[in-house]
Write the C-alpha cells for this entry.
Amino acid sequence: MEGRIEKSMRPHLLFCYTECPNCLKIVDYLRSIFRDCSLEITFYHLIEVPPSLLMPRSDYYREIEREELLEKFIEERREKTLEKFEKISKDLGQFVDLTAHYVIEVIEGNKAEHVLNFLKERKFTGVVMGKRGLGTLATIWAGSFTQKMILYSQQPLWIIRKGTAERKFLIAVDTGEAGLKVASYALDVLSKLGNFEAIFFHAEWPLISKNIERPLTDLKKEELSSPIYELFSEIKERVKTIGIPINNIRIKVRGAIFGASSAILKEVRSNNFSTVIAGKRGKDGFTGLLLGSVATKLVSTLEKEALWLVP
C-alpha cells in the first residue's frame, strides 16, 4: 500500500477475541491507530465447552452420543471462529500491513488463568481486550476475565472501549524508574506510527513545579522540580535516540489536589485524548492496586478512551 511506514520491529499484539460486539470496536480502533503501518496480530480465542457436554454418561450408548456431540460442538465453534478471524484479517489488511496468526483452544475452567499461562512463554507488545464487567471500584473483587487480567498480567494490557480513534495520546508519567518505564514503552510503540500528538503528563501534589504546558523541545529547568526535570530530560533524550519527530510531543504539569487520577481524567476530558497510557502498579503492590491506585480508578472511570496499562 502506498505511503506505508516500514519499521524493523513491528508491534505484535495478542487480540483476545470474544463474540461480544465490542470486538468490532477493537478492530476499528486498531485500524485507526495503525493505518498505513506494519502490525502483527495473534488472534486468540478460547472455546468454552458447556458443562452438559463434559459430564460422562453411565450408559455406554449415551456416552458415545455425548462424545459425538462434544466433537461436533468444538468443530463448529472452531470453524466459525476461524471464518471470523479470516474476515477481520482481510478487512484490516486493506489499511494495515498485517501479519496474522490464529490460535483457537478448547478449555475447561478459568479463562483468565488459561490466558495468563499462555502468556508466560510468549511476549507481546500488548494484550488487547474490551472492557467487560468493569463498573465501580468494588467490582474489582468480582472476578471477571478483564479484572483478573488487570491484576495478574505481567504484560501491557490495552483495554479498548470505542472504535475509530485519533492518534492523540496522553502518557501519564510519575518520577523515577516507573515513569521512565511507561515513557519508554509509549515511545517504542509511537515510533511505529506516522503522525500523532502526544503529551507527557505529570500530576504533582504538593505542587512544587509551575503549572506548565509547552513543547518538549522547550524544556526549562527553572520551572520544574528536580525529579520532574530529570524525567522530562531523559524522555527528551530517548525521543532523539529513537528518531521520533520531537515536535509531535508536548509536556504538561498540573497540580493534583484531588489525586493523580482526577487530574488525569480532567485532562483527558478537556482535550479529547483517544488513548491514555499509564503504569499499572499500585503504590502498595497488590493491595494498592485493589484499593485505589491510579490504574484502578482509570479502568473504572474512563468511558470511551482506550487505556494502555504498563506493568
Remarks:
- Confidence is low (pLDDT under 50) at residues 1-8, 133-143, 283-292.
